[in-house]
């Protein structure tokens, strides 16, 4: 571990398998350096909340983990498998990154459901076409998942006719359908009307409770404190402070985090 | 029926257009069938070129992009009639030269194949631009979601980009199809017996120009009307999942 700020957050005696290891991740857009060396470890079952102001690089960090953004440099290891990178940071082995992506399900701020497919079709799309699950099996599983997120009666509806909260719950069902090892949430409630935030958070809270590994970029501080077992505060592309939620929220050390927490409270 | 035609003074026209021996109706219909064959082929070939062209222009390297820019600019700048003459004579000449070099004799090139090839290349230039615009109109999040779930590029194209762009592409492609049906008439100049040439032959043999060209016009109009219905269905299908613009989001 290169810096104290990025030290392994968990006790050494922890024997759970590593789910995600990020080492010294840098990302620049042109001359603008958004991530200036970020390291992060998440073990199986961890719920890591990533918080920070706008422009702090938290979404970029999440998107670098599944290479939706190409990192400028650094190392990313998923389930013990290091992603092969070219010198410019792009994935060197397309098949490897595609295989890894099927184990990392992402939930987007803007839902990004496929608009020309019904909710059920959205949920079975990846299992049937990428993971080659038999269609009947995928449909049965999709129905269970839609039921679980409270959308069993909307299976044949198109996303554009749903509320934001319903779309995001469907997007979570789509993510669960691939049986992911890690779920990546990129500000899942930021595009929602305030009265719809609760229904989505309830679903995510359930997932956390059943021990799923999750990385959660969020502006919902109360929620982060409640569901996460580890909180990372990013400031201008660096990890300013991290630790258990009770520490980070209850007893912030850095002045910037104190200021940030008071500004969002 | 016969009496009505008689009173309207159309008995002679009806006889000229009759499908059996003395009438020329069968010739006109044969011409129409050839026109439609070429229009279908050229439109399909054009869309195929357009798909590769659009992807090449959007994601290709600098060389591919430059070549495609030259292709779309030149084809769209030169009148179709001139292109048809160039492509038809150059194309057949090249094929015959190649055949000669390989020791075969002169090859008789089928008019339908030549027509499809010539009009397809013209259509391809326009299709490239229509499809490029449609692909660019697909919200990036749709493609990003597919990438995030590990879809390989070809699957993203078939499962996400093409279905999502269809609603943007349909109006432009419908236009191109109608242009294709009418551009087939230009092939008359290279002696291909599509509807316009058949009509001209019938008209000049019988001196009944008005009758035959009006009939041909009627046939072209029918093709357009039927196409309108079919494209209506296609557009409805392509826009599935999108709230109607007229109704708003209720």
From TrEMBL, chain A:
Would the keyword Cell membrane turn up in this protein's UniProt record? yes
Checking PROSITE patterns in the record gives:
ABC_TRANSPORTER_1 (PS00211), ABC_TRANSPORTER_2 (PS50893)
Pfam families per record: ABC_tran (PF00005)
According to its UniProt record, where is this protein located?
A: Cell membrane
User: Can you tell which superkingdom this protein's organism belongs to?
Assistant: Bacteria
Q: Which Gene3D superfamilies match?
A: P-loop containing nucleotide triphosphate hydrolases
Protein's recorded name: Histidine/lysine/arginine/ornithine ABC transporter ATP-binding protein
- Specify the species: Parasedimentitalea denitrificans
TrEMBL record, chain B:
Q: Where in the cell is it found?
A: Cell inner membrane; Cell membrane
Record keywords, A-Z? Cell inner membrane, Cell membrane, Membrane, Transmembrane, Transmembrane helix, Transport
ABC transmembrane type-1 domain location is 32-231
Domain of life (superkingdom):
Bacteria
Report the Pfam families cross-referenced here: BPD_transp_1 (PF00528)
Transmembrane ranges, per UniProt, are: 38-56, 68-89, 109-127, 148-170, 209-234
> What PROSITE patterns does UniProt report for this protein, alphabetically?
ABC_TM1
Membrane topology is:
Multi-pass membrane protein
- Supply the PANTHER family for this chain: CATIONIC AMINO ACID TRANSPORTER, MEMBRANE COMPONENT
Family in the record: Belongs to the binding-protein-dependent transport system permease family. HisMQ subfamily.
Recorded hits in NCBIfam families, A to Z, give:
HEQRo_perm_3TM
Q: What name does UniProt use for this protein?
A: ABC transporter permease
């Amino acid at each position: 571990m290169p810096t104290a700020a990025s030290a392994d957050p968990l006790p050494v005696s922890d024997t759970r398998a590593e789910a995600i290891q990020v080492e010294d991740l840098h990302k620049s857009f042109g001359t603008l350096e958004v991530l200036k060396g970020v390291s992060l470890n998440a073990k199986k079952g961890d719920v890591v909340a990533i918080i920070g102001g706008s422009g702090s690089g938290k979404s970029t960090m999440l998107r670098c983990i599944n290479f939706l953004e190409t990192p400028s440099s650094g190392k990313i290891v998923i389930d013990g498998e290091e992603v092969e990178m070219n010198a410019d940071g792009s994935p060197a082995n397309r098949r490897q990154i595609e295989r890894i992506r099927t184990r990392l399900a992402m939930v987007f701020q803007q839902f990004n459901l496929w608009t020309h497919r019904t909710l059920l079709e959205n949920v079975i799309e990846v299992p049937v076409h990428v993971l080659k699950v038999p269609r009947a099996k995928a449909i049965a599983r999709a129905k269970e998942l839609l039921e679980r997120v409270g959308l069993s009666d909307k299976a044949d509806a198109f996303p554009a006719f749903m509320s934001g909260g319903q779309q995001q719950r469907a997007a979570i069902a789509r993510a669960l359908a691939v049986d992911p090892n890690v779920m990546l949430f990129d500000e899942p409630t930021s595009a929602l009307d305030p009265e719809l935030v609760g229904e989505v958070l309830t679903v995510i809270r359930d997932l956390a409770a059943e021990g799923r590994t999750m990385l959660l970029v969020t502006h919902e501080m109360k929620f982060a404190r409640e569901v996460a077992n580890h909180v990372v505060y990013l400031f201008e592309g660096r990890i300013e402070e991290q630790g258990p939620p009770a520490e980070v929220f209850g007893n912030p050390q850095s002045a910037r985090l104190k200021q940030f927490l008071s500004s969002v409270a | 029926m016969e009496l009505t035609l008689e009173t309207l003074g159309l008995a002679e026209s009806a006889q000229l257009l009759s499908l059996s021996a003395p009438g020329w109706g069968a010739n006109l219909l044969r011409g129409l069938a050839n026109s439609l064959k070429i229009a279908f082929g050229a439109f399909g070939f054009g869309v195929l070129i357009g798909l590769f062209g659009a992807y090449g222009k959007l994601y290709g390297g600098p060389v591919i992009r430059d070549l495609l820019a030259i292709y779309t600019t030149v084809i769209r700048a030169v009148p179709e009639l001139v292109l048809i003459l160039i492509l038809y004579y150059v194309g057949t000449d090249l094929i015959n030269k190649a055949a000669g070099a390989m020791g075969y004799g002169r090859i008789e090139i089928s008019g339908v194949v030549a027509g499809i090839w010539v009009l397809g290349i013209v259509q391809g230039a326009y299709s490239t631009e229509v499809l490029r615009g449609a692909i660019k109109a697909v919200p990036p999040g749709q493609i990003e979601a597919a990438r995030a779930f590990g879809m390989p590029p070809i699957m993203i194209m078939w499962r996400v980009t093409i279905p999502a762009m269809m609603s943007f592409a349909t109006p432009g492609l419908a236009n191109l199809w109608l242009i294709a049906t009418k551009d087939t008439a230009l092939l008359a100049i290279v002696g291909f017996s599509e509807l316009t040439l058949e009509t001209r032959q019938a008209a000049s043999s019988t001196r009944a120009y008005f009758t035959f060209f009006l009939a041909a016009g009627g046939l072209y109009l029918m093709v357009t009307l039927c196409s309108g219905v079919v494209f209506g269905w296609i557009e409805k299908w392509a826009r599935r999942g999108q709230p109607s613009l007229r109704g708003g989001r209720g």
